[in-house]
Amino acid sequence: MFETMKGRQKYISLSVGILAWFMGGIVFAFNAYAIALKQTFNYTQTELDYVASSGDLAIAVAFPAGLVLDNFGPRVTCTVSLILTTLGFALMWMATQFKIFFTTKSWLLSVFYFLTSGGIRFIIVATKVVICKNFKRKHMGKILGLYSTIYGISPAIFSAIYEGLFVQGHIEDAENQKLSEFLIMLALLSFCINLYAAILLKMESEGMDDPKEAELASTKQNGDETKDATAEGHDNDPVGTKKEVNDKTELISKKTDRLPQPEMTCWQIIKTIQFYYLIIISLIVAGVGGSFTNNITTVVKSARLEEYAIIFTVVIPICSSFGRFFGGMIPDFIFQKWPDIPKSSILLFPGICSCVGHVSFSISDQSLGGLIFSSMIMALAYGSFYTQNNIIAIQLFGLKYYGQNSGLIAIGRGIGILTFQKLFAFFYETNSQLGSKYCYGERCYRWYFLLMAIICLCVVFLIFCLMKIERDQRLQHEEEKAS
């Protein structure tokens, strides 16, 4: 009977995660209403970047969200998300009703947006940890890729909804768009999805009333994973399995003698060198990717192509979704086909693409085709990295404390986006005409993108260093076993 309950709860949790990650994508739809927000409150580019960066800084909330999940479970975590997210959107709506007051209080709007984005982190962490524990480890990349794909498509859907229902033809006078109605819609949507998650999101064992059944289910799952690992070892050594057994045959194949999967807490991983490599890589790749996502409409406006802004707010999430999906599915295939390959090697794709994308931006010469191509490359890089960063955290540090570990690594993403957001604003306003809040021409962003290309090239070097550390650990383990 527990098999039926187990399967049912698994897919109920999957459906909760799909809705949660769809809602989470609203953070990356900021560009859809960024100009309306800027003109409604008459903010400078720096003030607008403060608001956008507060949402990115909320990524750091993923760490306390992971601790809450590990200690109190998914129901409490989703309840916290419900309170913070709904309250944040409601307060942002309130700000649109008192425009004069909030015109000089951009920091308050930043706090409201921080609450909203921070609340979303709670339900994102809860769903991804629960679903990874409910499904077999060999499917984690596919599941995380599916969730990340939905997360990437979501901004395109929200952008299309905003453009279709709330812009109402006010392109040049964005302050007259229906921004307040849009925020009310988001508040109601977040309330319903979080309530659904708080009621139905559970671990498989939590869905069973009998503790013996839960224990038996857990034991069976572990046994299934052991069988999968054994079968994987046989599949990768077809010659060895077909040899006849005799007194010279090795009882244990060297092919299956691999490093054991670690299960480390957040306090243990900060003592490892891999953690610092990973958080620096995350800080830079996610930082430049998040800054690019938040500022693409500003870049388009600088090129005097703002009438094509909708193309970027739709194309970028779609390309990002391709990167997220295949960024999860391909590592599953690679790790099963070549289990001894350094796990961090999958990060080479987003690292190299980020470098190429920024070089392309710097030489695009304000052409629409060049900007679209560069945006597609960057979206693929940022999307794939988002999924692969989670996969690497599990591969290097284990699944048991995945919530808090992924949250701790996510702090690097938040700091990176905030840092590069400020850097973009500095270049933008430095090249603006005196007394103007806007900058036009390629001088507004060319040197920024060139600098980012150089930094991303350094990241590729760090990824090779992380791969070498993994290889050295594997060789050391093999030597210890041989001796």
Description:
The chain is mostly helical and 483 residues long. The chain has a single domain, classed as MFS general substrate transporter like domains (Growth Hormone, Chain: A), CATH 1.20.1250. It is built from 18 helices and no strands. It has helices spanning 2-24, 30-40, 45-57, 62-72, 74-97, 99-103, 106-134, 140-166, 179-200, 211-235, 238-242, 266-269, 273-302, 309-337, 348-362, 368-397, 402-430, 446-482. Helix 4 (62-72) packs antiparallel against helix 17. The longest helix is centred in the last third of the chain and has 37 residues, at 446-482. It is globular and about 75 Å long. It is found in: Membrane. This is Nodulin-like domain-containing protein. Keywords: Membrane, Transmembrane, Transmembrane helix. GO terms for molecular function: transmembrane transporter activity. Residues 222-247 have a biased composition (Basic and acidic residues).
Radius of gyration: 24 Å
Annotation, overall tally of beta strands: 0
The H/E string reads HHHHHHHHHHHHHHHHHH
Task: Supply the number of helical segments.
Answer: 18
Number of domains: 1
Protein name: Nodulin-like domain-containing protein
Main location: membrane
Region (Disordered): 211-247
Organism: Owenia fusiformis (Polychaete worm)
